[in-house]
Design brief:
Blueprint: E1 15-23, E2 27-34, E3 38-45, H1 53-69, E4 81-85, E5 92-95, H2 103-109, H3 114-133, E6 136-137, E7 146-148, E8 154-156, E9 163-164, H4 181-184, H5 191-207, H6 217-226, H7 232-235, H8 241-250, H9 262-274, H10 278-282, H11 286-295
Length: 317
């Protein structure tokens, strides 16, 4: 291990640290090896947590919630936890290692095509829907908290600000770019608050731009509470109006006007994709489409095609 990297003061039994990967607000992250679990990411609390109770609680939350979400069942789009211990000098969390980096890093490098962007959005929503089904609010849905495995599969991660739905806290936590208006107002979090953040994420994934770009917490709060972001189609004309409306609905200032559940968001997004014309799905020009119709004038003789977006229906949550 590089001497400039922080050496762990404690390593759980049966874990061998390979190298330092990076640090977060509450932990140092290492690539490690375990005899049974194989190669994984090992999170160890930062030493200053013992004098910073808010950050210590965030680490405890992440361990407890991530482990609970993996009890009895693993979900494809939620980070897999192997084991963890939330408190004290021997606190740790071991999870799958996602070598693909974060969605935030991917957006920094590339503008995503519509098909790829939609896949990421749907997979994030599926992970979030699973968390909600397990009575967990994430409270910080954003591209930086979405990890990608070696195959580019989305993993909803970083549950440090997450809470169980039985906790009626009014703490104003999250990242200001993605926080729902009612959270700024100190109201109790709901499924709709997470859906609002999902809508902001979808906007950013589709356009590579954030809908609100204030330079301070207060400025961003005022924008979330009173501003209307530009329509997605202002930045990308190729985004169908049906998709734009779904994102806008998710980002409604009034929680009652948003989707009732994340499952409803997924279903409407999938339905919108299914109703897109073949030209939009495949990227064919209208001239190519017309030529194709001339070649096969009899609809009954041409086989039906499943369409490029058929994979959205493959696999259930």
């Amino acid at each position: 291990m590089n001497t400039r990297d922080p050496k762990p003061k404690y390593v759980p039994k049966e874990y061998k640290v390979i190298k330092f990967l990076g640090s977060g607000q509450t932990s140092y992250v290492y690539l490690a090896e375990h005899a049974r679990f194989g190669q994984l990411a090992l999170k160890l609390p930062r030493p200053e947590l013992h004098v910073r109770p808010v950050l210590r609680r965030m680490f405890e939350n992440e361990v407890q919630i991530t482990v609970s979400l993996n009890a009895n069942r693993q979900h494809k789009h939620v980070i897999r936890a192997f084991e963890g211990f939330p408190t004290g000098e021997k606190a740790f969390l071991s999870t799958e290692y996602c070598s693909g980096g974060s969605l935030d890093e991917l957006l920094y490098k590339n503008n995503l095509d519509f098909k790829s962007a939609s896949r990421y959005i749907i997979e994030v929503a599926r992970g979030l829907a699973y968390a909600h089904s397990r009575q967990v609010f994430h409270r910080d849905v954003k591209p930086a908290n979405i990890l990608l495995d070696q195959d580019g599969v989305v993993k909803l991660a970083d549950f440090g600000t997450g809470i169980f739905m039985t906790d009626r806290t009014t703490d104003r936590v999250g990242t200001a770019y993605y926080m729902a208006p009612e959270i700024f107002e100190g109201k109790v979090p709901t499924v709709q608050a997470d859906i609002y953040s999902l809508g902001i994420l979808a906007y950013e994934v589709l356009t590579n731009k954030r809908p609100f770009t204030g330079s301070s917490y207060d400025e961003l709060m005022l924008q979330h509470l009173g501003s209307i972001p530009r329509n997605i189609r202002h930045y990308r004309k190729d985004i169908p109006d049906s998709i734009s409306k779904i994102v806008s609905k998710s980002m409604s200032r009034d929680p009652e006007k948003r989707f009732k559940t994340t499952r409803e968001f997924i279903d409407e997004y999938n339905q919108a994709l299914e109703h897109l014309s073949d030209d939009i799905k495949t990227g064919r020009s209208s001239r190519q489409s017309k030529a194709k119709k001339k070649e096969t004038p009899n609809k009954n003789t041409s086989p039906k095609k499943k369409g490029i977006f058929g994979w959205f229906r493959a696999g259930k949550d």
